[in-house]
Amino acid sequence: MTSCNNSIPQPLIFVLAGIPGLESSHGWFSVPFFLVFVITIIGNATILCIIRVEKSLHEPMFLLLAMLSIVDLSLVSVTVPRMLGIFWMNAKEISFKACLTQMFFIPSFYVMESGILLAMAFDRFVAIWFPLRYTTILANSILGKMALAVLARAMAVLTPAPILAKRLEGFQTHIIAYSYCAYMAVVQIACGDVSNHIVYGLMVIVASVGFDLFFIILSYGLILHAVFHIPSWEARGKALSTCGSHLCIIALFYSPVVFSVLAQILGYHMAPYLQIIIDNLYFLVPPMVNPLIYGARTKQMRERVLWIFHCHRH
């Protein structure tokens, strides 16, 4: 229950603080943010072009990687330009409607990415447990249904966010201590009973990240069970190497979330600016690193990239 003696009505304009406490360093923060944005666009666009052109890559693992790249491009496109506007031009004002839009799309793309990582874990499970039926089980029609399921889940889970936020009437302030319109950041400055909003926020985490992480761990448990029953050490290493890129991406994607949750459970209170920086890492680091990991660790992708560079040199 948040009581306010001098509450203000629902404002038409919110002000995004950026990174509170480090306003004087916004210019310095803009440099890595901009570089991450450029690298993400180039890397994911390259991945999509290579998969589209190279017919040998039209198989389930790479088609799922293409879906991941599309979501990554969408995610940085709705987050980084607004952040750079704050850092470069002090463009902190955002309309209430635009805030609600951000509140829906930013976490939606994050939930979609989590769903695709789960689909990729299932892909590796099928490849190792049922190698002879791999392309049959993961036919294009099945991949299409998986993509629709990921999209539908994100919409079902996140549609209530702007609807619930719109019902908030009284606010302590019109300043959001964040670099984008996060649902819980808006709830924190609201007046009155916000317990339902907090429960909803927890449900979103459990129904998306919690659900996906549980089944990813289960998939890899079954993968390891199958791999260690292979008699040849060489065959074991080859089987595990096909999972290496995906495991790296999973570690990068879920680490900030797990760190934040553990910090709250253990009662460790981070400085607000540190919490916001970690939250921004959710949306910035994985989209940049995903194409670099797959480009470096996947033979077909690496050979195609080197071939492109060779052609440009000559």
Automatic annotation (TrEMBL):
CDD domains: 7tmA_OR51_52-like (cd15917). One of its GO terms (cellular component) is plasma membrane. InterPro entries: GPCR_Rhodpsn, GPCR_Rhodpsn_7TM, Olfact_rcpt, OR51/52/56-like. The chain crosses the membrane at residues 28-51, 63-89, 109-130, 198-224, 244-266. Gene3D superfamilies: Rhodopsin 7-helix transmembrane proteins. It is a multi-pass membrane protein. The keyword Calcium does not apply. Keywords: Cell membrane, G-protein coupled receptor, Membrane, Olfaction, Receptor, Sensory transduction, Transducer, Transmembrane, Transmembrane helix. Pfam families: 7tm_4. It is found in: Cell membrane; Membrane. Residues 43-294 form the G-protein coupled receptors family 1 profile domain. One of its GO terms (molecular function) is G protein-coupled receptor activity. Belongs to the G-protein coupled receptor 1 family. Odorant receptor. Putative odorant or sperm cell receptor. This is Olfactory receptor.
